[in-house]
Amino acid sequence: MKARVVLLPGDGIGPEVVAAARAVLERAASRAGHALAFDEHLIGGAAIDATGEPLPASTLEACRGADAALLGAVGGPRWDDPRAPVRPEQGLLAIRRELGLFANLRPVRTWPELADASPLKPDRLAGVDILFVRELTGGLYFGPRARERGEDGERAYDTMLYTEGEIRRVVALAFRLAAGRRRRVTSVDKANVLESSRLWRQIVLEIAASHPDIAVDHQLVDSAAMRIITSPGAFDVIVTENMFGDILTDEASVLSGSLGLLPSASLAEGRFGLYEPIHGSAPDIAGTGAANPLGAILSAAMLLRHSLGLDAEATAIERAVDAAIASGARTRDLGGTLGTEAMTAAVLRGLAG
């Protein structure tokens, strides 16, 4: 198989973890006889510095011609002014909108060997394996028309707007993914207060009726936030709207013990997907070689599975990460001493085995 992957290193530790993920991605693909071609392009603060724009047209064009993109991180203190007319985060919102990346997948799992790294008691962490499916291009974060978002000096407003089609496609995806897992879907909304959530719940009920083999329950977002901490092992697939998903996935990230462990995928309706670790640009450790590359490496595994259809190769990377952790390999965020290169080498050894 031949495929083209766009690399978007971005800012801070982004270039370091993307380089690590590329090394693992190339090794896994070449071992199975696949050829991957890579192009590197700008996004975020680095793009602002070079071009004045957080998402240059050349970057967008490259992504449209690729099978997938692997992103590091965007942002940092140099571009932190929330009132600046051009900000790194605008690049992320723009690429999601322009490429139709409507669904964000965030798997959250735990490793028994890392139980001490989590603030939760070990008995709460047993068997945790959650897949969050977050709607990514609607809701409060996207108000494209002036009447949906504004500020007049004394007040400011954002509108949580959803269409039936936006809800239906992300919920349908959640059910398809649950069919290949433990066949449970939890839909998170705020239907006791919000009209958009009432529409959300109505559509979930309609889609659930077509999937009698999948168990479905509905949780209000506040109670879901509590249950993610008190009984995380009870969840399989959680599907929710944009802002709720943003908050809940960050909350759930503490279950594994470090933001550096967690990957994500943002999917379009076709083959293309944008893959990135959920951590930020970590400017305090950028350039020191201390970044944990595992979130980026596991994002590369998701790239193989969801955009290239290479499930066996994706599983090989995931097992290599498991083996590295089981062997005692730890970066500093996990209480160890390994740097980015040494942790990447530990994963590459697992792929060679």
Beta-strand portion reads 15-25%
- What low-confidence regions span 5 or more consecutive residues with pLDDT below 50? none
- At the fourth CATH level, what is the homologous superfamily of the largest domain? Isopropylmalate Dehydrogenase
Number of domains: 2
User: Nearest-angstrom radius of gyration?
Assistant: 20 Å
Instruction: Find the CATH topology of the largest domain.
Output: Isopropylmalate Dehydrogenase
- Individual helix count: 12
Q: Helicity, in percent?
A: 40-55%
Give me the CATH architecture of the largest domain, please.
3-Layer(aba) Sandwich
Q: How would you explain this protein's 3D organization?
A:
By secondary structure, the protein is of the alpha/beta class. It folds into two domains: 1-118 and 257-353, Isopropylmalate Dehydrogenase, CATH 3.40.718.10; 121-255, 3-Layer(aba) Sandwich (Isopropylmalate Dehydrogenase), CATH 3.40.718.10. It has helices spanning 14-31, 45-51, 57-64, 88-99, 122-125, 164-179, 195-209, 221-230, 242-252, 294-306, 311-326, 340-352; strands at residues 2-10, 35-40, 68-73, 103-109, 129-135, 149-151, 156-158, 184-189, 215-220, 237-240, 265-267, 273-275. It has a ten-stranded mixed beta sheet with strand order 2-1-3-12-11-4-5-10-8-9, sandwiched between helices. The model has no long low-confidence stretch (mean pLDDT 95).
Task: Considering the chains and any ligands shown, give keywords for the structure.
single chain, 12 strands, Isopropylmalate Dehydrogenase, two-stranded antiparallel ribbon, alpha/beta, 10-stranded mixed sheet, 2 domains, 353 residues, 18% strand
